[in-house]
């Protein structure tokens, strides 16, 4: 008997939802602007479409060892976004790399040279989670910008999640030979100049 | 009946059937039945003591509240102490870095081995200007277009800040801006907005949504950009502000919280996330639409 009473009560308290949930824009995981027209994130997919639309991307540097999903590839080709696959293959024996392998010097050099050409901008650098591979490339870029190593490390670790940064990645950033990077001085983005 | 009453799970139903009628009286009867009876005469005095303690506690809480209200804009003692501590640090550093800056300006090489090493590396790179070493403030990042966020900048960060070509700085802490900083702003022609607010400190101090609204009005005005938003650590107050900005961009809350936590780590505050979610954006959306500041643009 009392059950029916409470049942009745709960019906009284029912509220009518008058509005549909509003549209939410979903940026890719670990997304953050780096410089003007340069962004970093984890692996984007088709659910990020409405967000990516606003960025007007020209190029995506894909550092993940996994290939993008088919529908995302379609999205990129229909929007004339160039996906540069960097670091998916081992340069020496042409075998695919493991997701946990560190980037090679050649991969970092290639990625940096793409970033330093403003013709490729707006540009997104991404890997699986936007942590270590992306962090390596952005870290080396920061060194090239003249950031001190402590600030580079602080930024890298901000994006590495609960398990923290990897010492090997930081060693790689510290020891990367900036002299390897070849750039066309006319193509350097504005933010790298004075 | 006997069989049923032995089963503990059946007892309630049996009782209900017996009493029937009004559920409230039935419940109170039940409660009385199961309330332990204290034969011990000290029980009552104990409970009085307990009540007294409760009364004192609530009085103390009340006094604290009153103090806080009297101080109005000021933060709680705890917060104030913390802020002042950090401020003293700032001032101390200010002098130290002032000397460092002078040393640099006079082209006196710094004595630390590390610095020289980095400088040498920087000079080797083909693009760098003057081989100068850049130190961004902690927790620095672009938010959108030329809106930036960071912790309280130190004099050692000034070279870096110059490169951002800031038009204004929005400071979210109530304390006076350090003199050296003021001088830097004057030199660079940077406008300073100061909206002193206290962060979310459970349970009494809450971040003010009115102040956040005022802050957003400043930030999204293109007249003021490029703009740097900072508080003390660039975690909580700045985090709340950026969270609200992200809502104006219609980001999904999950990603907003993720970003908040990234910058607030390891001191994320659930209250801040709650603030971001519950903030009433109607006023600011109306303001932004009237001034055609929305949607926020990436370039």
TrEMBL record, chain A:
GO CC annotation terms, alphabetical: cytoplasm
Pfam families, per the entry: Y_phosphatase2
InterPro entries documented for this protein: PFA-DSPs, Prot-tyrosine_phosphatase-like, Siw14-like, TYR_PHOSPHATASE_DUAL_dom
Location, primary (coarse class): cytoplasm
Keywords: Cytoplasm, Hydrolase, Protein phosphatase, Stress response
Listed GO MF terms: protein tyrosine phosphatase activity
Subcellular location as annotated: Cytoplasm
SUPFAM superfamilies associated with the record: (Phosphotyrosine protein) phosphatases II (SSF52799)
Enzyme Commission no: 3.1.3.48
Tyrosine-protein phosphatase domain boundaries: 30-189
Enzymatic reactions: O-phospho-L-tyrosyl-[protein] + H2O = L-tyrosyl-[protein] + phosphate
Gene3D superfamilies, sorted: Protein tyrosine phosphatase superfamily (3.90.190.10)
Summary of the function given for this chain in its UniProt record: Putative tyrosine-protein phosphatase required for protection against superoxide stress.
Family the entry assigns: Belongs to the protein-tyrosine phosphatase family.
This protein's name: Putative tyrosine-protein phosphatase OCA1
Lineage start: Eukaryota, Fungi, Dikarya, Ascomycota, Saccharomycotina
Automatic annotation (TrEMBL), chain B:
Keyword Repressor on entry: no
Domain Tyrosine specific protein phosphatases, first and last residues per copy: 202-244
Source taxon at top rank: Eukaryota
Domain named Tyrosine-protein phosphatase: residues: 139-288
Annotated region described as Disordered, given as residue ranges: 1-47
GO molecular function, one term: phosphatase activity
SUPFAM superfamilies the record matches: (Phosphotyrosine protein) phosphatases II (SSF52799)
Signal peptide: none
Catalytic activity: 3,5-bis(diphospho)-1D-myo-inositol 1,2,4,6-tetrakisphosphate + H2O = 3-diphospho-1D-myo-inositol 1,2,4,5,6-pentakisphosphate + phosphate + 2 H(+); 1,5-bis(diphospho)-1D-myo-inositol 2,3,4,6-tetrakisphosphate + H2O = 1-diphospho-1D-myo-inositol 2,3,4,5,6-pentakisphosphate + phosphate + 2 H(+); 6-diphospho-1D-myo-inositol pentakisphosphate + H2O = 1D-myo-inositol hexakisphosphate + phosphate + H(+); 5-diphospho-1D-myo-inositol 1,2,3,4,6-pentakisphosphate + H2O = 1D-myo-inositol hexakisphosphate + phosphate + H(+)
GO cellular component: cytoplasm
Enzyme Commission number: 3.6.1.52
Keyword Hydrolase attributed: yes
Acidic residues bias locations: 1-12
Record keywords: Hydrolase
Pfam families: Y_phosphatase2 (PF03162)
EC main group: hydrolase
Similarity comment: Belongs to the protein-tyrosine phosphatase family. Atypical dual-specificity phosphatase Siw14-like subfamily.
Designated name of the protein: diphosphoinositol-polyphosphate diphosphatase
Source organism of this protein record: [Candida] railenensis
Lineage start: Eukaryota, Fungi, Dikarya, Ascomycota, Saccharomycotina
